[in-house]
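Schema walk-through. Below, the input block comes first and the output block second. Nothing else is stored per chain. Lengths vary across the set, and this one has 234 residues.
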Amino acid sequence: MPIDLEKIGKFLKDKREVKGLALTDISHSLCLRKSLIDAIESGNWKLLPHEVYVKGYLKEYAHLLNVSDEIIDELAYVEARAPLEVPIQQKAETKHKHLPKRAFIYPLALVPVIGFFILSQIYREQPLTTRIQNAGRTSTNIANNTGPDRQVTSEVAEAKKLMITCQERTWVSVVIDDTEKKEFMLNPQDIIILNAKEKYDLLIGNAGGVRLILNGNDVQFTGGSGEVKRIKLS
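--- output ---
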């Protein structure tokens, strides 16, 4: 049989008032809205959720007031409601939404195979003489150190790499190739690495707290701790 909420609600309300507790006190203690507590005490089902949840609220409310034993018989049975039937059409639509994993795995597995087949066909269609010429040109460039590879190697060799290591806290302002400006606040053991084509213009806030290494070589410069110093490297 269903819960006699009107009877239990009035019982709990009377016990609450005897103990001098307000609705707000119960609301805070049970972490429930004040309107829910008021609906329980007045037996108003329209403002309450399913009967199963209400049974849980009543148990917690009674335990809070230390009157659980007095309403245990009233809460011994709650008539279970039959689960709602899902319409057949809705079930069919849900079934179509969940595709098997194989529907995704098989097409993905075919992608590299198709790509390899296309590339192999393109390579086969290329004239044999063109392939031989390209291979010969590559070999000649490597042997003579000419062509695009030599240009890249030359640019890397001519680049100026600057490493700044910090022993004492300091700030550093650097202008790279008269175009790019960077500023850093360094702490002990910090390391920064910069690259330039031609030169650096540095302003160091603590000349005694940094070490400069240009292309693997120590930059010899004088400067004491706390001294601001400007250094140009090229």
